Amino acid sequence: KDKQPEGGYDSTPIPKPPAGTIGYTVKFTFHSASALTIGDLGVMSSDPYIFAQLNTDLEPRHKEDPRLRFRSPTVHKNLNPTWNEEWIVANVPSSGFRLKVRVYDEDPADHDDMLGKAHITVPSLDDNWAGFMKESYKLTLRDSSKRALFIRAVARCFGVVKKFQGEVTVSAELLGRTENKNDGQNGKAYTLGPVRWCRHYSPILGRLANIKEPSEGDTRSPSADKKHQQEVQKYNFQANEFQLPGPVPAELYHRFVEFRPWVKRMFTTTGFQGVLLGKALHHQHNRVYNFSRDTVWGHFPQGPSEEMTKKFLELAHYAQGGRIFTYIITLDALWRFTETGPQISIDMLSKHTMHSDVSIYIAFSGEFFLRRLKHPRRPPPPDPVDETSQRHPPSHQANEIEAEAEDEPPTDPAHYELVIDNDSGTYRPNAQKLPLLADFLAHCLPGLHIQTLDCQADADKMAKMKAAQRDRKKKTGDHVVYAQGDDSSSISSEEHEALDAAEQGG
Questions:
Q1: Hey, where are the domains in the chain?
Q2: pLDDT in tens, 321-380
């Protein structure tokens, strides 16, 4: 038997914490900041957001495990922003934590500049820890952007800025001990909530992927002049992030597969080739998951609910257009996905590596799509309609896949089936863990049917189902039903004309 390359499923358990360690659930609230550094000289303001990292002395399974991090929405053109964003973290150990808070200026066209940072250290926690309420911390300028510092110095000389050092206001509240469910997670801190979603837009990538959206405000019927419809549509590409409630099951733990010598160098950024490839993929990730004025945010403080499932269905377009999505789920339950296709495959060095932002370890990866069912409760959710190598639904009357109609799609989650697989050559997730993935998603997305496919054992069935999706896409077109703004991430009419000419010439 040929030796398999290193990587894929990793059975390393989460290390147990030191004896006597108690895990607590802590809610951090990032309220506001004041007297921030100017990041944009043109408007004498900034587009600030919070980027926080929580460090504890809990031992990771591997040193390459990603850090526990949080990013807030952006407040645009404001040197005294208010966020009031919450981050609830479970299993914070009684040995305390160190919260690193950084404030950045969002710049979609360039790299984001750091405007200042603050470190908050709590040496220990117990049942009587009082936390802290709306404490203000000085933002040190060490390691801040040289450009931002220069602009601030100039602005201070002209009296535009009164203070040289800004502040950030943060709260931390003890919610109690984290429930120990004997799930192997008591040695790992994780994001418990709130459930957050985020949609990113990229017109340039939409052109590359041939993904369009209707013109905002266009009320013509589907039978209207086809030429006019093509003229008013704008190219767009949408990338989605869905912060699921943690924890991810401990057994969902996969490492990149070293199927070529250069792959390891790329993930570890070693050697000239590895540094170049890693940098290129980080750049691609930032281009796809680009934050701008058009980025849309939302959250569900109540956690898993039917409304949360409906939001996922909306992000996946309610099974319209025969779409297939590439996805990864991080170790902190962040679900990233975009529509996939041959155009994107050509443009991306590695789809799953790009989605993971070149993470060495993730929870799971593959592809998925949605099917609309004619009979929503044959069988009851979350059971799948069909039997596969990993899922065996109870006996039920035959169901049918409903064809797309001209009217609005149903919003009841029971009308849809999520078909999700482990088709990822980068991480090669273990097919035996697909039922565990399905159970986790069923908890996060109540009311939805879930079918899992093993990309090897169910290869024929998977190929037929995806071929049917692609045929449906060809027949129905690719009309995205979401409007996009026209600010910093849009492209000019001249660029549209140039791309149109290139497309016609090609």
A1: 17-186, 198-216+227-476
A2: 899 999 999 999 999 999 986 555 434 557 899 999 999 999 999 999 999 998 887 788
Global confidence as pTM? 0.85
- Tell which phi-psi region holds residue 134, choosing left (phi > 0), alpha (psi between -120 and 50) or beta: left
Angle 261-268/271-288 helices, nearest 10 degrees? 60
User: Is CATH 2.60.40.150 the classification given to domain 17-186?
Assistant: yes
Distance CA 226, CA 109 (A): 34
Rounded to whole angstroms, how far apart are CA atoms 152 and 458?
Answer: 60
Position 391 scores a pLDDT of 62
430 near 8, Cβ under 8 Å?
yes
Supply 66's token pair: 């990603």
Task: Give the closest residue to 443 by CA, choosing from 382, 386, 486.
Answer: 382
- Chain centroid, CA 399 distance in Å: 33
Output phi, psi for 44, to 5 deg.
Answer: 50, 45
Distance, in Å, from the CA atom of 68 to the CA atom of 188, rounded to the nearest integer, reads 10
pLDDT at 156: 66
The whole-angstrom separation of Cα 53 and Cα 67 is 7
Residue 496 has pLDDT above 50, yes or no: no
C-beta of residue 291 within 8 angstroms of C-beta of residue 401 = no
The one-letter amino acid code at 493 reads S
Phi, psi of 81 (to 5 degrees): -75, 155
**What pLDDT sits at residue 21?**
94
Task: In whole angstroms, give the CA distance from residue 420 to residue 338.
Answer: 14
Between CA 241 and CA 237 the distance in angstroms is 14
Q: How many CB atoms lie within 10 A of CB 68?
A: 22
State the DSSP code for 162: S
In tens, the pLDDT along 238-286 reads 999 999 998 999 999 999 999 888 888 889 888 888 889 888 888 888 8
